[in-house]
Design brief:
It is a single chain. The protein has 9 helices and 8 strands. With about 230 residues, the chain is of the alpha/beta class. It has one domain: TIM Barrel.
C-alpha cells in the first residue's frame, strides 16, 4: 500500500460493511459504487485506491484530474468529474472521463456534445448526470429542481451524451433527517424520470459526512474522500 495510505483498505472495508448494514435495514439491493475522491492529494492516493481494488476515481478540478491521468495512464481506472464544469472546459473533458456528474444546464450539455463531436466520427459516448441543487443553496452549483425534466430531455437528444441519472449535494449539516430529506427528493425526481420512460438508474449522492443517509435513501454512487484517505494536505 502506498506510503501514507496504509489505513485505506481498512477504511474501505468499514465503509462497505456500513453500506451493507444500512441496505439490509432499509430493504435495499442496488449496487453502490464507491468513487474515491482524490482532490488535493497526489497521484499516490489514486495508486493506493487502485491497489485497494477501487477502480472509480473522482476529481473536482479538470486540470488536476488531467495531470493525474497523464501520470497514471497505465492503471485501469474510470475517471469521474464531480466538480463544477465550465462550458469553456468541455473540450478538455471530452474523451477523458467516464462519467461527468455536473451537467446543470442545456447550454453546458450542448457544449459538451460539440466537444465530443470534435473528437471525430467515432461512436464514443460520454456518460453524464444532471446535477440538481435540491436544497436550492445559492453557493452551490446545480440546476433548479423544476428544470430537471427539460435538461434531462435535452441530454437524451444529444447523440454523444448518455444520461445515466442525477447528482446532488446535501447542505453541510449533521442532522440526518435534513440530509435524508434532500436525498429523498433527488430519488423522487429520478423516479419521475424513470416513470416517463427514461433509463436513469444512477443517484450520485453522499459524501464522507453524509453517505450513510444517502445510502438509506437509495444512493447508487458515493463520492468519498476524507473517510477513505483522511484529511487532505494543507
Amino acid at each position: 500500500m502506498a506510503m501514507g495510505f496504509t489505513a485505506l483498505p481498512q477504511n474501505l472495508t468499514r465503509v462497505r460493511e456500513k453500506i451493507a448494514s444500512i441496505q439490509t435495514r432499509e430493504g435495499l439491493r442496488d449496487d453502490v459504487r464507491i468513487v474515491a475522491v482524490t482532490k488535493g492529494h497526489s497521484g499516490t492516493a489514486v495508486a493506493a485506491a487502485h491497489m485497494a481494488g477501487v477502480r472509480d476515481v473522482g476529481e473536482n478540478r479538470v486540470q488536476e484530474a488531467l495531470g493525474k491521468q497523464d501520470s497514471l495512464g497505465d492503471l485501469d481506472l474510470r475517471w469521474h468529474l464531480i466538480g463544477h464544469l465550465q462550458t469553456n472546459k468541455t473540450k478538455l473533458v471530452a474523451g477523458r472521463f467516464s462519467l461527468v456528474h455536473s451537467i446543470d444546464s442545456v447550454r453546458l450539455a450542448e457544449a459538451l456534445q460539440r466537444s465530443m463531436e470534435r473528437l471525430g466520427d467515432g461512436l464514443d459516448l460520454i456518460e453524464v448526470l444532471v446535477q440538481v441543487n435540491v436544497a436550492q443553496e445559492p453557493q452551490k452549483s446545480g440546476c433548479e429542481p423544476a428544470a430537471v425534466p427539460e435538461i434531462a430531455s435535452k441530454v437524451e437528444e444529444l447523440p454523444r451524451l448518455r444520461l445515466r441519472g442525477l447528482m446532488t449535494m446535501a447542505p453541510y449539516t449533521d442532522n440526518e433527517i435534513d440530509q435524508r430529506k434532500v436525498f429523498a427528493r433527488l430519488r423522487e425526481q429520478r423516479d419521475g424520470l424513470v416513470a416517463s420512460g427514461m433509463d436513469v438508474p444512477e443517484l450520485s449522492m453522499g459524501m464522507s459526512g453524509d453517505y450513510e443517509s444517502a445510502v438509506a435513501e437509495g444512493a447508487t454512487i458515493l463520492r468519498l474522500g476524507t473517510v477513505l484517505f483522511g484529511e487532505r494536505p494543507k
